[in-house]
């Protein structure tokens, strides 16, 4: 596949490359002040505004802020906020899910509804974990939408948002510029960044709201300076502004609820910006996997694309892990995931292809949830097949599963628990695994 090829119709966005770089970009020449942040008067009559994603005093490696030069400051956007309908969007702690019995859970793909829904209206939360107010934990949702947000602009004060499109593309119009996003790519919108999402047909995807500190790249340790997700493949948009003086609906998620107000212009009015706090996208097919070259199945942490650390070293608030195309070469090894229980809880989705632990039952667009300390592993077909397979080098191709793995137990929402797509029988897939034990025969 030629990753550099991009259909002309999608070529609406331009990017700067590098994870966490300090970028500078201007849509009008000279809009950025030189050598200072806040001159007495900004060029073109713009307002200067700082957006701080970390405490002012955070260590240099995790200090995140950007300076935005905009037509109106954000404080001018303020009207009296009214509660807005959050639909099926939930935040932790939601109070839902406490009565759902602990079990492995799975859902078939949920179709995009008939009626017109925007990205914002189409967010349906599946699990919540931790506590948004305590800035710890996450929520996993699906978006199911088929109309553009147009004159509706949103920002999330509760969470950073990781978008994983599965079916249909999105155009993200953000304060920092435009991002086009298709299945196979992911985007991160930092907490507090305003955006609108446009579509040109039905769009479905997985949304991870990160209530904690920002996603970053995992350490590579002995792997060295290259492979896994390489920093140069992360793309930030160049500045692009809207100068549209017409009514807009401004929606904020704050304190676990949605609030709205009207303003008379587009708040996506940033003409220039500089800094290291900005939305970005990444093509998952650029991930360079590293894995076991001789025997055994390594922990899935080798496939971590992004990690949102907690205060405890090695204990992520969220790890975003993928299972991309790769060669399986391990000798005398049961190659699929092993049977296990995990102190972290595992929300999985499938963007395309087949997942080796559940080759038939887990469908693209579906969900599985293997919660904190609940047992799971290959289904009977995967076990029987992999136990007897001829262990030639084998390539897993055309596949992209992913996992949102969090230190917190995930509570299932009422919406997800009641879905007709919930596969109740999945709780019992382990029963099909037959007894093979024979004390008289060492060669099984
Ligand atoms: O449970 C899963 O399917 C995800 C997973 C994959 C793997 O290769 C090892 C551990 C793990 O949790
Ligand atoms: Fe697992």
TrEMBL record:
The keyword Metal-binding applies. One of its GO terms (molecular function) is homogentisate 1,2-dioxygenase activity. Residues 285-437 form the Homogentisate 1,2-dioxygenase C-terminal domain. This is Homogentisate 1,2-dioxygenase. InterPro entries: HgmA_C, HgmA_N, Homogentis_dOase, RmlC-like_jellyroll, RmlC_Cupin_sf. Residues 14-284 form the Homogentisate 1,2-dioxygenase N-terminal domain. It comes from the Bacteria. Its EC number is 1.13.11.5. Its cofactor is Fe cation. Belongs to the homogentisate dioxygenase family. The lineage of its organism: Bacteria, Pseudomonadati, Pseudomonadota, Alphaproteobacteria, Acetobacterales. Pfam families: HgmA_C, HgmA_N.
């Amino acid at each position: 596949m030629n990753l550099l090829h991009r259909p002309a119709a999608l070529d609406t966005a331009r990017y700067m490359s590098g994870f966490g770089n300090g970028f500078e970009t201007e849509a009008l020449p000279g809009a950025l002040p030189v050598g200072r942040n806040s001159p007495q008067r900004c060029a073109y009559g713009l307002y200067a505004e700082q957006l701080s994603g970390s405490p002012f005093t955070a260590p240099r490696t995790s200090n995140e802020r950007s300076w935005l030069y905009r037509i109106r400051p954000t404080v001018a956007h303020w009207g009296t906020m009214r509660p807005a309908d959050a639909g099926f969007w939930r935040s932790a702690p939601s109070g839902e899910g406490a009565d759902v019995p602990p079990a492995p859970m799975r859902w078939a793909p949920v179709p995009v509804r008939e009626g017109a829904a925007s990205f914002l209206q189409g967010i349906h939360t599946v699990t919540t974990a931790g506590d948004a107010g305590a800035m710890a934990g996450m929520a996993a949702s699906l978006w199911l939408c088929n109309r553009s947000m147009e004159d509706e602009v949103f920002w999330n004060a509760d969470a950073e948002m990781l978008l994983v499109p599965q079916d249909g593309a999105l155009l993200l119009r953000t304060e920092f510029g435009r991002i086009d996003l298709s299945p196979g790519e992911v985007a991160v919108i930092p907490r507090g960044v305003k955006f609108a999402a446009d579509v040109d047909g039905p769009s479905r995807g997985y949304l991870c709201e990160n209530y904690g500190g920002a996603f970053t790249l995992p350490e590579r340790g002995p792997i060295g300076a290259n492979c896994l997700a390489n920093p140069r493949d992360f793309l930030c948009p160049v500045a692009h502004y809207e100068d549209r003086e017409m009514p807009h609906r401004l929606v904020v998620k704050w304190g676990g609820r949605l609030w709205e107000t009207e303003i008379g212009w587009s708040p996506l009015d940033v003409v220039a910006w500089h800094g290291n706090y900005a939305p970005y996208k990444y093509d998952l097919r650029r991930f360079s996997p590293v894995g076991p070259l001789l025997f055994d199945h390594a922990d899935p942490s080798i496939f971590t694309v992004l990690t949102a650390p907690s205060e405890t070293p090695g204990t992520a608030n969220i790890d975003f892990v993928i299972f991309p195309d790769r060669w399986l070469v391990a000798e005398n090894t049961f190659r699929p995931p092993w049977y296990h229980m995990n102190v972290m809880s595992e929300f999985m989705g499938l963007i395309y292809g087949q997942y080796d632990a559940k080759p038939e039952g887990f469908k693209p667009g579906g969900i599985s949830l293997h919660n904190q300390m609940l047992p799971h592993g290959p289904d009977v077909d995967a076990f029987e097949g992999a136990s007897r397979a001829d262990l030639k080098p084998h390539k897993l191709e055309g596949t992209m599963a992913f996992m949102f793995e969090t230190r917190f137990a995930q509570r299932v929402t009422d919406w997800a628990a009641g879905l007709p797509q919930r596969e109740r029988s999945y709780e019992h897939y382990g029963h099909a695994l037959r007894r093979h034990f024979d004390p008289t025969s060492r060669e099984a």
